[in-house]
Amino acid sequence: MGRPSEDHVKRPFGYAIVLFLLGAAVSLAASLDAAGHDKGRTLYRAKCQFCHGIRGDGKGPAAESLLEHPVDFTDSKFWKDDVTKKIYETVTQGKEMMPAFDLTPDDIAAITSYISHTFKNAPHDAKGGRGDQ
Ligand code: HEC
Fold first, then answer.
1. Closest listed residue to residue 117, CA positions, set 81, 60, 79
2. Whose CA is nearest to atom 25 of ligand 1?
3. Mind listing the pLDDT tens digit for each residue in 87-106?
4. Class of domain 34-132
5. Closest Cα to residue 74, out of 89, 55, 88?
6. Claim: this prediction has a pTM higher than 0.70
7. What is the SS3 assignment for 98?
8. When you count CB atoms within 10 A of the terminal residue's CB, does the N or C end of the chain come out lower?
9. How many angstroms does the Cα of residue 99 sit away from the middle of ligand 1?
10. What is the mean pLDDT of residues 120-126?
């Protein structure tokens, strides 16, 4: 009675260490995986979102003022061809209303990965997606 046994004092501390190590391992794995993703997101937001939209649907703030619509990344039609090549060529060479960007292959790969992870399977709100092809 009175003083807690040493066990009582140590155990919660031990759990805390185990949890901490587990958390560190998980977040390390996640951050390795997310490093490219975060970079891609940052680049996308800085360079592409303006026209292609935060949701990748081609409805960015500048889209209205363009004569041509920026491509909609949530449209399954976009994903039919070799997307990696299409994105790379479009970004380095530009296309019609879209300017070329001075980005490294690494940057473009990060953007490509972000676009495909985030928008490929995003709901395509426009006209019911699959049904209207
Ligand atoms: C100034 C507005 C604007 C910005 C900024 C912009 N785009 Fe575009 N993008 C367009 C327009 C407009 C089109 C449609 C061009 C066409 O099909 O003629 C397009 C088309 C595309 C296409 C499809 C090309 C094809 O052959 O179907 C890809 C891929 C693309 N953009 C990627 C990007 C990426 C990645 C970024 C950021 C690095 C970006 N765009 C930034 C306006 C923009």
1. 79
2. 86
3. 999 999 999 999 999 999 99
4. mainly alpha
5. 55
6. yes
7. strand
8. N
9. 8
10. 77
